[in-house]
Amino acid sequence: MAVIGYLGTSAEEGLIFEVSDETLETIKNMVWSGSARYATHQRHLTHALTEFVGLDPDKITFDITFLAQLGVEPMAELKKLWKYEREGTALQLVLGEHGYGKYRWTIQNHKSKTEYTDVHGNIYCAEVSVSLLEYLSKDF
């Protein structure tokens, strides 16, 4: 088993991204974005002045497929996401040897698309899009 990262409060909890003979749970289509804020000061009979006033929180979006055939329990993983989102839990995002962001991330929103169900109506495969918002401590 090769743990390649996680989204959670620690490496033992949360969504564990891993690849092994029995399990495949990895992210795809990851986009990390940021933006700056500027104020515009109007001046009489001349050009307006722009002033850099700070940074907006960074955002990360990614997709993840939960597929029972690949050793993942889709509903259990979805429940983890829902719990973190609804409680506003500040999470670490680690991929490989790199922790992303200055501090932590919160789940801003998610979209879950059920691809397949089993004969009992249980989710067998779900494609989930997750949007994270940078969460900084007072020290940053």
Describe the overall structure.
The mean pLDDT is 92. The strands form three sheets. The protein has a five-stranded antiparallel sheet. Strands 4-7-11-10 form a four-stranded antiparallel sheet, with helices on one face. The protein has one helix and eleven strands. Strand 10 and strand 11 (123-135) form a beta hairpin. With 140 residues, it is mostly beta strands.
Q: What's the shape? A: elongated
Percentage of residues assigned to helices: 10-25%
**Largest sheet, if any?**
5 strands, antiparallel
Strand content is over 45%
Strand order of the largest sheet: 3-2-1-8-9
Intertermini distance: 36 Å
**What are the low-pLDDT stretches, counting only 5+ consecutive residues below 50?**
none
C-alpha-based Rg, rounded: 19 Å
Secondary-structure element string: EEEEEEEHEEEE
Question: Quick check: average pLDDT?
Answer: 92
Sheet/helix structural class: mainly beta
Tally of strands: 11
Number of helices: 1
